[in-house]
Structures are given as C-alpha cells and as structure tokens.
Amino acid sequence: MANTNKITIIGAGQVGSTVAFALTLKGIASEIVLIDIAKDRAMGEAMDIRQGTPFIGQVYIHDGEYSDAKDSDIVILTSGVARKPGQSRLDLAQTNVNITKSIIPEITKYAPDALYVIVANPVDILTYQFVKTSGIPANHIFGTGTMLDTARFRARIAETYKVAQENVHGYVFGEHGDSSFVPWSLANIGSIPVDKYAEAFEAGKLPTFNKDDVEDYIRKSGGIIIAAKKCTNYAIGVTTAHLCEALTYDTDSVLTISTMLDGEYGINDVCLSIPAVVGRNGITSRIVAPLTDAEIASLKHSADCLKDVINQLDFN
What is the 3 state secondary structure string of the chain? Predict the structure, then answer.
C-alpha cells in the first residue's frame, strides 16, 4: 500500500458504505472519509467499520464534512436516489443530476487535484456532467461504467463452461444500461475464441449457450437483485474498490470505465465504456479495439441513446 492514500466517499448509503468496507478489507487507503447529508448514518457506518480494523490493518475511517476531503487522492461519488424495482437507470437522470449539481462545487473546492470515481446512476450521465461542469481534468474523472457488467459477463461464461473466471476474457461496451453489448469478437477463454471453445472438447462435454441470453442476463441482473433485496451493493462495492486499487498502485490496468470519448469509433461528446488504461495519474489512453462493423454500430447506438437523454437534461 502507498504510505498515505486518502479516499473520500460522498454518500454513506448501502453502496457508499460497502465501498468503504471493500476498500478497508483490501487495505488500499490509509484514511477514508465518509460524507453524507445524513450525518448519523455516516458516523455509524464509519464507526462500525473502524471497530473491525484491528483485525485488518491500519486504516483510519471516519465521517466528516466536505472540508475534511482536503488532500484526498481519490473521491468517490455514490450519492443519489436509489433505483426502484422496475425503474431504469436513465429514469433517475434528472433527479440525480440535480443532486450532483449541489455536490460538485462543494467537493472540488477542497479536492481539486483528486481522481474522481463516479458510481451513482445513471453513471454515464453523471460522469458526463462531472466532466462538463466540474473544472476537473477529464482524464481524472472515471465512471465505473461497464466494469460491473464485464464482471457479470465473465462470471456467466465461467459458470457455463465450468472454468476459472480469470481465464475468461472479454468486455461489455457502451452504456451501463439497456443499450450495453458484448463485442463477441473480442471474447475468449484461455486465448480460444468463445465460439470455438466447446470444439476443443469431446462432443457433448460442454453446454451450448445463446449469446442473446447472456447479454440479457447481464442487463437484467441489477433489476433482479433490486427486486429481491431492494438494492445492489456488494458487487459494485468490490468493483469500485478494484478501480481504486488500479489507481492507487499505478498498475496501468485495462478497464471498461466510462470516459468522455473524443473521436474514438467516430464518437464524440458522450461518456460511455470502452477499454481504457488507467493508473495513478488518471487515464493514460483509451483503446480502440478492432470491432466488427456490427459491433461499431452497436456502440454508436449506445452513444445515441445516451445523447438523447443528455439533450433532455438540465445540467446548469
């Protein structure tokens, strides 16, 4: 771990507190600040986690005000109205844009040099808002984007073929939402294209799967979990901690984060997920992977879906 690494989390609800717990378990931060309009909630979550740190490591986690975010290396935004059962992420757009409006000037005043990780939904819209209105350099702003969708994809393929998840390689591109898609041309298991993997085994040994069913599973997983337990928090908590780990250890990791595109695949002025290289200094580069014409069309469709929403929102 770095000698000092201060992380501030705005929002101490289910997601924010789970992110704090995941960061603590991973030993990524030396100090974690929890900020929430519900001050008692932030205090209680910080105190609960802090009392377990003797069994984990030296992490000072506490509640605070915006001013306590001074000198933060990373700021994580989880504040917003939670998605309700049956509600799409984009239905939340204006409400959570308005919440973020009030947060941006307060946090950037005290942590102008931090890396900003946007987790709240709709994550692509809020990432766009942050890039456009915060004054923070665009390469210091990350939405968790389709990192979680990508994890769901890898888990699903691993379950289908009964293979270790780390041997499944592939990504989910586009919006973190209904217009996301898997570029199957990039997906492989142990360097073998997913489409060819079953052929490497004796006939009938491995099950077949339907690509549309896999993508449907990825898109609907969040809604299924919310209907069952009213929120999603564990997987996104681990996902966010993994991103912070890459930023802290300067690993130059390739992750499908939501960033502002600037001509990649002919797409501009929208935040969505394609692979990007990230490290302690932010986004090093975006990777323009070789996609099929159909996959490029799907990515442009996802961008258009997000732009349609952006054009209906008030960011000022």
Answer: CCCCCEEEEECCCHHHHHHHHHHHHHCCCCEEEEECCCHHHHHHHHHHHHCCHHHCCCCEEEECCHHHHCCCCEEEECCCCCCCCCCCHHHHHHHHHHHHHHHHHHHHHHCCCCEEEECCCCHHHHHHHHHHHCCCCHHHEEECCCHHHHHHHHHHHHHHHCCCHHHEECCCEECCCCCCECCHHHCEECCEEHHHHHHHCCCCCCCCCCHHHHHHHHHHHHHHHHHHHCCCCHHHHHHHHHHHHHHHHCCCEEECCEEEEECHHHCEEEEEECCEEEECCEEEEECCCCCCHHHHHHHHHHHHHHHHHHCCCCCC
User: Would you say 272 and 174 are in contact if contact means Cβ atoms under 8 Å apart?
Assistant: yes
Give per-residue pLDDT as tens, 58-114. Answer: 899 999 999 999 999 999 999 988 766 676 656 778 989 999 999 999 999 999 999
Give Cβ neighbours of residue 174 (< 8 Å, ≥ 6 apart): 146, 180, 181, 272, 273, 298, 299, 302, 303
User: Tens digits of per-residue pLDDT, 176-216?
Assistant: 988 999 999 999 999 999 988 888 876 667 777 889 999 99
Question: b/e per residue, 100-137, with b = 16+ CB within 10 A?
Answer: beebbeebbebbeebbbbbbbbbbbbbbbbbbbbbebe
The whole-angstrom separation of Cα 185 and Cα 160 is: 18
Active-site residue list = 176
**Whole-model pTM over 0.85:** yes
